[in-house]
Recover the amino acids of this structure.
């Protein structure tokens, strides 16, 4: 039944995108929270761009970069990897659009970690990487969870950039939002509403899970 | 009888050359969704390769292609968007054909349909708002505007126009009472829930509403693309289109 | 032996120190704002002097002219700050063992029994009393086998009755472990009782320095 395929596909790609957000997201959040450097404001602005630009504009930019004629897409095509109009484009759009929200939330979490603890850990012999993983990250865990859920929710609901770079290809790149839009456009209202209900269910579950995990993480810390 | 004939013709066409394994990407206007899904199923059943249909507004699809998206075939809802792609030098020369044609209808909610049917062309005050596709970007909207211009009633209706992002939105407007009439394609009438056709616009009162198809120059799958486009104009495909209320061009 | 010879300027505050600390316990004595904590921070590598040198047992920790500035995790200092700063997300045992390096001689049991925190090892940090937190922080600093122990007013937040109970632990550390201590306080009695050498600081400079009975 294609409705379940759409649902599973959307959840799977959103989870992949959330996982993909973590390494660059943690790094950026830490840099912006803890380090002063030249070009810091520029970096901050760049990271926030997908939040401010219309999603379709971001999608267009991604298309220019990742199409077979584009700088990144050209290299990938010679390696035999297609991005545009495939599930990879879906994950890419979700990651790019969710990353700014993740970074903002986690950065705030890092900024709230008392630097005295990090200083103490350093005097006890912990090099910066160990300080990050043993002190900063655990103490910012509630923010990390909240950021990941926010990123996931954004990924599930992502539409504008997705439709630009992944298209609306039944069975291949139709996520929940894209399918809802396509069904509504072609008169499949019943199916569209069903998908809306499923989306709402996923969003509800994600938020509930986020609150639960945050509370548990907060209690442990 | 007809179905047996087209099956035979299709089979012969397809079996003339070996099959490609890579799927074909066809960017097609949303209004062709139901018809094309049926046709590609038939194409596959008759031995054709896998076709990936990418649906969207023709303007969006054209933008995608111009910005490098790797489609093999483009089926547009109007010539203007096809021209955009052609001007960018991305069409394969000589591959362009007309697939189907469409026709405009004026629709209204059941309680307004008599008013609209009898008085639309006089632009009475009771018809306060008319929903059409955005006349700047959406093909159906462009044709609607051209129709109104030809009838000399564009100027009087212009302040009452509700531009919609797509046909569905125009139908929602008229069904919810936000607009008194909507000008859409005859093929869209089927997806309307409550709105009914007040009258069909005669073909000669609008420019030809043609859906061109063309193969893109950057295709990696020329044989398959050609085979598919040919299939679109086969009798069997024409029958499917006709069943969905499209008009099949008589000359090829 | 700790050799301090540096200037530190930050905002409107200026600190200038030129001292050699040779005893077991050196006390930095003075009112708040005189630069005591800043000095500890500079030795630990948490603050950077504007110019000068800091050396620990002959090892150069900071030298502005040779552009040497060892990061804190390479300095082998044990720091017990005024606010103790025990890691809230770890229990006592994990806090104490945090800085433990491979192959060092100090054992957890030894340090724990010396400071009498054996019973606390599996407790969470949040439920401890002020005195208990001090001893845990001390144990944590000691377990990293530091070359010098920096104690910032360890008895300031502790009530009078408790002070007399903690001081013996400090004396035990001094006597049994042989780690040099730099001890910051504004309390004359503590300084007199504990110090081999006292440096009196005022407004960012040493005004007097010598044995406690001469200086205080």
């Amino acid at each position: 039944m294609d409705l379940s395929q759409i649902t599973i596909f959307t959840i799977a790609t959103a989870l992949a995108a959330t996982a993909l957000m973590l390494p660059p997201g943690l790094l950026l959040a830490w840099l912006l929270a803890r380090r002063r450097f030249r070009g810091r404001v520029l970096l901050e602005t760049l990271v926030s761009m997908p939040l401010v630009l219309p999603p379709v504009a971001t999608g267009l930019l991604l298309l220019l970069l990742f199409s077979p004629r584009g700088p990144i897409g050209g290299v990938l095509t010679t390696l035999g990897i297609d991005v545009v109009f495939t599930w990879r484009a879906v994950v890419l759009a979700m990651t790019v659009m969710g990353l700014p929200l993740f970074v903002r939330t986690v950065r705030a979490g890092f900024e709230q970690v008392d630097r005295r603890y990090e200083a103490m850990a350093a005097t006890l012999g912990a090099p910066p990487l160990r300080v990050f993983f043993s002190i900063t990250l655990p103490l910012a865990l509630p923010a990390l969870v909240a950021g990941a859920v926010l990123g996931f929710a954004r990924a599930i609901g992502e539409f504008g950039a997705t439709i630009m770079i992944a298209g609306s290809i039944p069975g291949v790149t139709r996520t929940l939002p894209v399918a809802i839009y396509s069904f509504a456009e072609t008169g499949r209202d019943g199916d569209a509403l069903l998908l809306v209900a499923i989306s709402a269910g996923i969003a509800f579950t994600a938020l509930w899970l986020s609150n639960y995990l945050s509370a548990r993480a907060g209690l442990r810390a | 009888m007809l179905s047996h004939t087209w099956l035979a013709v299709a089979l012969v066409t397809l079996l003339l050359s070996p099959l490609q394994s890579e799927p074909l990407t066809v960017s097609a206007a949303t209004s062709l969704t139901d018809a094309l899904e049926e046709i590609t199923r038939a194409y596959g059943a008759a031995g054709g390769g896998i076709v990936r249909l990418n649906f969207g507004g023709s303007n969006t699809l054209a933008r995608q292609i111009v910005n490098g998206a790797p489609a093999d075939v483009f089926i547009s809802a109007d010539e203007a968007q096809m021209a955009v792609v052609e001007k960018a030098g991305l069409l394969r020369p000589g591959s362009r054909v007309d697939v189907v044609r469409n026709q405009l209808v004026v629709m209204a909610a059941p309680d307004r349909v008599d008013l609209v049917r009898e008085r639309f062309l006089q632009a009475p005050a009771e018809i306060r708002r008319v929903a059409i596709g955005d006349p700047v970007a959406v093909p159906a909207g462009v044709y609607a505007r051209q129709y109104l211009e030809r009838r000399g009633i564009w100027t009087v209706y212009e302040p009452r126009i509700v531009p919609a992002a797509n046909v569905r939105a125009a139908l929602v407007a008229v069904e919810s009472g936000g607009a008194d009439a909507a000008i859409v394609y005859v093929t869209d009438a089927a997806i309307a829930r409550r709105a009914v056709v007040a009258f069909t616009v005669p073909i000669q009162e609008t420019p030809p509403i043609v859906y061109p198809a063309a193969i893109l120059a950057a295709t990696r799958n020329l044989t398959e693309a050609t085979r598919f486009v040919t299939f679109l104009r086969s009798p069997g495909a024409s029958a499917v289109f006709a069943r969905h209320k499209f008009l099949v061009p008589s000359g090829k | 032996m700790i050799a301090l010879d540096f200037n530190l300027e930050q905002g409107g505050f200026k600190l200038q120190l030129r001292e050699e600390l040779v005893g077991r316990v050196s006390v930095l004595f003075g009112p708040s704002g005189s630069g005591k904590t800043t000095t500890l921070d500079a030795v630990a590598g948490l603050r950077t002097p504007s110019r000068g040198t800091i050396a620990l047992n002959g090892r150069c920790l900071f030298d502005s002219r040779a552009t040497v500035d060892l990061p804190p995790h390479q300095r082998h200092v044990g720091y017990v700050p005024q606010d103790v700063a025990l890691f809230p997300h770890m229990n006592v045992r994990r806090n104490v063992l945090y800085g433990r390096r491979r192959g060092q001689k100090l054992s957890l049991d030894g340090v724990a029994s010396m400071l009498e925190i054996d019973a606390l090892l599996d407790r969470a940090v949040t439920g401890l009393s002020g005195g208990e937190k001090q001893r845990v922080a001390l144990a944590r600093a000691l377990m990293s086998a530091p070359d010098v122990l920096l104690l910032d007013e360890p008895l300031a937040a502790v009530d009078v009755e408790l002070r007399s109970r903690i001081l013996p632990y400090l004396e035990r550390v001094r006597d049994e472990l042989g780690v040099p201590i730099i001890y910051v306080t504004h309390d004359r009695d503590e300084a007199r009782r504990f110090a081999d050498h006292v440096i009196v600081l005022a407004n960012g400079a040493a005004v007097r320095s010598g044995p406690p009975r001469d200086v205080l």
Observations:
- Chain A touches chain B through 26 residues (CB under 8 Å).
